[in-house]
Write a structure and sequence with these properties.
mainly alpha; about 0% strand
């Protein structure tokens, strides 16, 4: 690695540390939970110290022009929104994944770059701090794990609504003479699916609670985080299933028909599925690309099969609705 490449890499690390410091600082300022606020303030101070270390390595002249990324403020708003809508555990999980990536990069430069004794010492200290940060974030995830599981249930409900109703709408659109037929049919399937999903979520959560209580009675447990009730599980799973079910119907509400409506419906569902897939991938610590590909393949595959079936029925039996 040339000297210019080394300097460019060090500047990128400085910019990242500045960005991380601001993210943790803003999250700490917005946090009401005292324990979590204290942790975020500690992590913000750690990132500031890392930024100062990179400034020391670069020298004041080279470091003077380094700022947070151009879209840094947008990233801060994004993290604040994630914290607000998806909760503590999810944002801790996301930050932990970022720290893991940073750690890997730091360890790589230790092994690949020719460093002076002082440079190696400073970067080794940064790596140690980053490992502690990652451990703190993992602990935070564990403390709020019940909320994380709740988010998972909500997103799976959304996924089910998207996939199932897209398939139903795709089949109906091929046979229907009017977009209103597709809308009504899609909504009927969506409402019935909502009731089914909500009931299933309620029974599943209640059964899980009963089994957990029998294995580990409440009076034998420590002070646990309050977990979602069967009623709340049923409500949110049902609501988000219905929200997902509405997405494929939107093009037909606006008057599109047949394959044109299906095409727009597929695009809308794909966009929402991609977002939902990212959330599930972060929660499950799995590959984001793999999760998106898997979700899209399943949903689009189901839609394609129903389109073929609808086309065959229409062509060979002359059935329309």
């Amino acid at each position: 690695m040339s000297e210019s490449e080394k300097i460019r890499l060090e500047k990128s690390f400085l910019a990242e540390e500045i960005m991380d410091h601001e993210i943790f600082s803003h999250l700490a300022n917005a946090e009401k939970d005292r324990k979590l606020k204290k942790l975020l303030e500690k992590l913000a101070d750690t990132e500031k110290r890392h930024a100062d270390s990179w400034r020391g390595l670069l020298g004041e002249k080279r470091a003077s022009g380094v700022r947070k990324p151009v879209l840094g403020n947008l990233k801060i708003v994004e993290y604040l929104a994630i914290r607000k809508f998806l909760g503590t555990a999810f944002v801790s999980k996301l930050l932990g994944m970022n720290e893991s990536v940073t750690l890997t990069r730091y360890k790589q430069i230790i092994s690949d770059m020719q460093l002076s004794q002082d440079e190696r010492k400073r970067i080794t200290e940064i790596i140690k701090d980053e490992e502690e940060t990652e451990a703190d974030l993992k602990k935070s995830v564990q403390e709020y794990e019940g909320t994380l599981n709740h988010i998972g249930s909500i997103v799976f409900g959304l996924n089910d609504g998207l996939v199932e109703i897209l398939a139903a709408v795709a089949g109906l659109a091929v046979l229907a003479n009017s977009p209103i037929t597709v809308v009504v049919g899609g909504l009927i399937v969506g409402v019935s699916g909502t009731l089914s999903m909500a009931g299933g979520a309620y029974l599943s959560a209640k059964s899980h609670g009963l089994v957990e209580d029998s294995i580990n009675p409440k009076n034998e447990r420590g002070k646990d985080e309050e977990k979602p009730t069967p009623g709340s599980e049923a409500f949110y799973t049902g609501i988000f299933y219905l929200a997902g079910a509405l997405v494929p119907v939107i093009p037909f509400i606006f008057g599109l028909q047949s394959y044109a409506g299906i095409a727009v419906s597929v695009v809308l569902v794909s966009l929402v599925l991609a977002i939902a897939s990212v959330i599930i991938a972060i929660i499950s610590s799995s590959s984001i690309k793999h999760r998106i590909f898997e979700m899209l393949a399943i949903s689009l595959g189901a839609a394609f099969v129903t389109i073929i079936l609808g086309s065959v029925v229409k062509l060979y039996f002359g059935i329309t609705i």
